[in-house]
Amino acid sequence: MKNQWNVDHNEFTKADIKKVINTDVLVVGAGNAGMMAAAAAAEKHAKVMIVEKEASINLLRLGLGGVGTNAQKRAGLTINKYDLVEYLAAFAQHNVDEGLIYHWANHSAEAVNWVEDNILKPHSAHLRSEPDAMVTSSAYEGFATENDPTIDDQTFTSYGDWFQEKIAELGVDLQFNTALVELTKTNEMVTGAVVKDVKTGEYFQVNAPKGVILCTGGYSANKDLLKQWNPLALKKNVYNDSPRNNGAGITSALNVGAIKDEEPAECIFDRGLVPVGTKTDDMYVQTATYKDWLWLGSHPLLKVNLRGERFANESVPYQFIVNAASKQPGYQYAMIWDDNYGEYAKQFHTLGCARVGFPGYMASAEKLEADTQQYVDKGLVVKADTIEELAEKLHLPIDALKKTVARNNELVKDNIDKDFGKEAYRLTPVDKKPYYGCILGGRILCTSDGLRVNKKMEVMNAAYEPIKHLYAAGNDSGGFFFGSYPDRVPGLAASHAQTFGRLAGQQAAEN
C-alpha cells in the first residue's frame, strides 16, 4: 500500500500483517497528550492501547499551565480568563480558533488537578503555583499560569514513571517500539491502524472501533516536512530538541482526508550555542539531551548581529530574538556580557524556565554561572580582557562591536534605551572584564501547526466536518497556535497537550 504522505516509506500488503489486535481506543504516542488520553479513556472503562515508536515514554513536561487550578486557589491566585484568552488570540493575530483557546481555559484546571490528585499526591508530591509574573511593560506582559510538580517546594520532581504506573493500574496496554504506519478507514469512519514493530519489522492490524487518538507530537524532526511546511525553521534553528517528532500522526490523518493548519507555528528557544564560524545551512542537530543548551541565552543581555550591530529589543519572548535574527545576515547573532552577569541575572526577572529562582533549573545565580562556565571550558563561550580581543574571537568587526558596546554603556548611564526601548532595569553595562561572548541560533522544541480539530478533539476534513472516530491532541492538533509560542503564559504547551488529550480520551471512550 502507498499513501501520498508516507513518513517512513512503508510498503506492505495485507499478507504482511502478522496478527490482529482488538482494543476499544488506540492512542498513538506516549507523551503529555497520549498518556492523558489513555488514562481518561481507561477511566471511562474503555479498553485502551498505546503504541509508541520509541523505547520509552516521552518527557512529561514540568510546569503545567492552567486557569483556576487547586494549586492556584491555595496560593490565593486568580487569573482573568478573558484577558488571558484575548492575549493568546492577539499574540497569534487571531490566526487561531479562539473557541478552542476558551475550551482550553475552561478545562485546563480539570487536567492539572487530575495530575496532582492521581499522579503526584500518591507519591507525596503536589503542585506549587508560581505566582510571580510581574508585568513591567506592554512588551513583557505575563500571566501566572504555571503549576510546578514538587515534593519539597524547592525543586521540580519528575513524574513520568508515576504516570506510567498509573496507566498500568488502569489496565492500559502500552506497547513500545511500535510505530504507526497508516490509519484504516471503513465507510468514512476510522476503525484502527496498521502498526509496525520497529525491531522485528512485523506489521500488525489494530482494530479500535471507538477511536484512534493521534498524539505523536508534530514534525520538527522531519526535514522534508519542514522544507514543505516551514522552511524558515531550517534557517532559524541549529538544533531540534524533539527528535521523535517525525510527523507520522499528521501525515496519517492527511491520508484519510484530514486538513491541517495552513501556516506554521513553532516553539523556539534562544539557547542554541554553536562554534564561532558555523554556517546555519550546515547545522540542524537532532538531540534528545539538550546538547549545548545555554540557559543564559534567554536573558536580556546585549545581542548583536554578525556585523556587530544591535538589532532588536532583547527584552522580548524567547523566540522573538531568533525571529529578529532571521532578518539579519547569517541568521545567527552574538550575545555579549561582562563579569557581573550573575548579579544582572537576579534583576532581570525572567519568567518560565529561564528564571533564576524556584524551582528553575537555574535555582540561583551561582548555578547559572556554573552552567555558563562549562561552555567557557568547552570553547563555545569565549572570554577576553578587551572588547577588541572579544570581537576577534567571535569573528565580529572590531570597530562595529566597540561602537555598539560604547553605545550600550551610554544608554545604561542615561537609564533609558533610546534605540530599542528595553526596560531600564534590564539595561546592563559591558564594562567589567573579563568580557564574554558567544554565537547563538534557535532550538526548535516542536512544531504546533497541526490537524484542524473541533471542541470534541475530532479531526476535521476539507468540509470542516469530523472524520468519525479520529481524534488528535497535543502538537498533532491545530487551531491553537500561530507563528511563535507565547512563552509569557508559562506551562501552556504541556497544558494544551494534557487538557486536550484528556478531552479526546473521554470523547473516544463515550462512542
UniProtKB/TrEMBL annotation:
Residues 24-484 form the FAD-dependent oxidoreductase 2 FAD-binding domain. It comes from the Bacteria. The keyword Oxidoreductase applies. SUPFAM superfamilies: FAD/NAD(P)-binding domain, Succinate dehydrogenase/fumarate reductase flavoprotein, catalytic domain. The keyword Transferase does not apply. Its cofactor is FAD. Keywords: FAD, Flavoprotein, Oxidoreductase. This is FAD-dependent oxidoreductase.
